[in-house]
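Student: Please help interpret what follows.
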Amino acid sequence: MSNSTSVVIIGGGLAGLVSAYMLAKNGMEVRLVEKKSYPFHRVCGEYVSNEALRFLKLEGLIPPDLDLPVIENFLFSDTIGRSATLPLDLGGFGISRYELDYFLFKRAKEVGVNFLTGTQVFDVDFNNKENHFQIELSDSTILTSKHVIGAFGKRSKLDKVLNRPFIEKRSPFIGVKYHLKTDESRNTVALHNFEGGYCGINAIENDKFNICYLGSRDQLRKFGSIEEMEKQVLWKNPFLKRLFSESEFLLDKPEVINEINFEPKKLVENHILMAGDAAGLITPLCGNGMAMAIQSGKIAAETILHYKERSEIEQKYELEWKKLFQRRLWVGRKTQLLFGANKSSILAGKLIKNFPGLASLILKNTHGKPF
């Protein structure tokens, strides 16, 4: 196998898999490097906004044999359990990353993507004289490629290698995810507040539910374990107390990620096109991070396919990404100020209950149009 290829994609999440599929389908030689081996779980809300539905159906990128829940409503509760409900404008569907990523992996292989799984990228260097990249892998292999897409997620060792400014800033957030069986509405995505964070829950395939919460690193340190932190902090919201104490938990242990950072990020670093969370992370309360990752992978691939000169590819990608996502991320960061604390969550609940039109407008401004 030659170590030279047209495109190397670093990271096999939604953005990486979609870009790999689109490029290979259109005749490019693609190699995707993923540090884990499929299938595997990821910390994620596992709700896909319907803005991505048309594209996924058109490309055959939704598993056909799964009964996926249709999600039409949004339920909010403040830190003491007072709730309000809104209909969702676009709505969405629930599916686990375990199933979706694995299906996309298989579809990408069908169109010719070459995968290097269980492999890490140690370094990426752009050779100006040769106008190509050299990518050093954990097994000492050196790949060369004309293009690189960085789809390595929220936080990676590569961020430090590339000297990305956000990586030096400590983040107060951790993310925790479970799968469970419980008696909740399957057509509703819920967001339950607690002091220091918020927890989302929605139905996924096979009569299961996904819960994923954004919590406080300091609270985890204070209480010593995730389980004790949940009992002492999350359970003060009666919705969450009932959910955690009366549900059947399905995973051996929670999936956890540290240092979740919502700082703006550069879209092109050392000529690498950043996609998905590597380009910018929308606050999870907005509920469209998966759709954004899918779309960013799509536009990264389309930009490489449609333009020849590197400078034009980078310029067009940045312009399109900002047009689609920049305002959404800004609105998400501002909206998050209303969540995760007693007074602000009570205010957010009153806003949703008394001014549903305004609340719907805020939700709409964190989402895009179907693509």
